[in-house]
Amino acid sequence: MEKKKKSNDVDTKWDACLDLTARRVVYSSLGGAFAGLLFFRSPVTRWASIAFGAGLGIGSAYTDCSRVFDASSSSALVAPNSTETSSSSVSQVAEE
């Protein structure tokens, strides 16, 4: 039964990471498209701003997913401790 729970936990983490990645790529690409339409005239620079936005979305999603899986890409970067508590951190503490 414990093995099934761990497998389900990994599936939940993957689902959350894929959802987060898809949303961040789409939203940041749309932000890049808007910025490209607002600031640039050339189609090449507009596409470049969309690609830059997509890259920002992928990078931020990768960072958050690596924290979820406890496999941080860099041990030198540590998330700062916040004095505010969010509902998700409170629920994680309650589960432990």
List the SSEs and their pairings.
Layout: H1 2-39, H2 43-68, H3 87-95
InterPro entries: Mic10
Subcellular location: Mitochondrion inner membrane
Family: Belongs to the MICOS complex subunit Mic10 family.
What key attributes describe this structure?
single chain; 96 residues; mainly alpha; 3 helices; 76% helix; 0% strand; elongated
Strand share of the residues? under 5%
Reported for the largest beta sheet, the result is: none
Report the helical percentage.
over 70%
Q: Which stretches of 5+ consecutive residues score pLDDT under 50?
A: 72-77
Radius of gyration: 18 Å
Can you count the beta strands? Answer: 0
Q: Which structural class fits the helix and strand makeup?
A: mainly alpha
Please, what is the average pLDDT?
79
Helix tally?
3
Detailed description of the structure:
The protein has three helices and no strands. By secondary structure, it is an all-alpha fold. It has a domain of 64 residues. The longest helix has 38 residues. It starts with a helix and ends with a helix.
Briefly say what this structure is.
The protein is mostly helical. It has helices spanning 2-39, 43-68, 87-95.
